[in-house]
Amino acid sequence: MAASSGGTLPEEQVRAMFDRIARVYDLMNSVMTVGLHHRWRERAADLAEVGAGDRALDVASGTGDLAIVLSRRVAPGGEVVGSDFSERMLELARAKAPRIAFEHGNALELPYDDDSFDAATVGFGARNFSDLARGLAEMARVVRPGGRVVVLEITTPAKPPLSWFFRAWFDRLVPFLGRMAGDPEAYSYLPSSVRRFPDARGLAAAMTAVGLVNVRWILTAGGIIAIHAGEVEAE
Ligand SMILES: C[S@@+](CC[C@H](N)C(=O)[O-])C[C@H]1O[C@@H](n2cnc3c(N)ncnc32)[C@H](O)[C@@H]1O
What's the predicted TM-score (pTM) here? Predict the structure, then answer.
């Protein structure tokens, strides 16, 4: 989940930032979430409802952890494609899981045909999209009718005491860890990007607005993590 663009950066700067932090990304994820991110990815894969033989796309796949979870679910006979525009992140993903196809691609202009996947997921990537509606619409476009679009993201808890904990974690601990990791700029973007991202209800509305149906979500980690799922309308 680590760093984020803050939403206002031009795409080229977002890509360059992820190239820069790629080598510390996995370690930072594990430290910042005390390893819980693995559980959240499993929950996201549950909502993608993929099974043996299915074809799944993981958008903004980064170092590939969600794609790896999906690849276990689609075996035997299935296929997972991980797509990202940061070559450094893709290199690490390929080294971790050589059997998964990790491909260069912009989430706002996915290089895949309509209806070509059974499900598309994005983990901690959507808040970096310079155009959220376009990114969601692209995911919906490449998924077949009846297939699922899943968004795993950080969300801001509204009520104390979690909102207090969240502020301490994001405004103090995460920037501190970023300084330790040698990239204070990148890790100071994370809190601001999360604040700018729609809340759970708002994200559900954005998914519905691109034509997804049966949009629902679960909150976990005490309301800090939201996992949304919607279906591409069956014809
Ligand atoms: C915070 S990381 C998340 C990585 C991974 N999905 C995970 O769960 O750990 C965000 C990723 O989104 C990618 N990204 C951001 N905007 C993108 C875009 N428009 N197209 C493709 N990848 C994008 C970045 O390169 C980065 O690898």
Answer: 0.92
